[in-house]
Specification:
Blueprint (H helix, E strand, L loop, with lengths): L6 H4 L2 E3 L5 E3 L13 H4 L6 H10 L4
Antiparallel strand pairs: 1-2
């Protein structure tokens, strides 16, 4: 049987080459020069939530 992808979640997260899951977040598309590196690095999804995301997106 085919496993279904959670389409709403697939539009909100993406995977990096190393396998980390990043979430789409506000304030990350423009005016990045005055924002701190720490602010820009807060895009990662925590480990426990990443497990849930992988269950909902089996083909990620």
């Amino acid at each position: 049987m085919k496993v279904k992808t959670h389409k709403a979640l697939s539009k909100r997260v993406k995977a990096t080459k190393t396998g980390k899951i990043l979430r789409v977040q506000s304030a990350s598309s423009h005016l990045l020069t005055h924002k701190s590196d720490r602010t820009k690095l807060k895009l990662a999804v925590s480990g426990h939530d990443a497990k849930k995301v992988r269950q909902m997106l089996p083909y990620l």
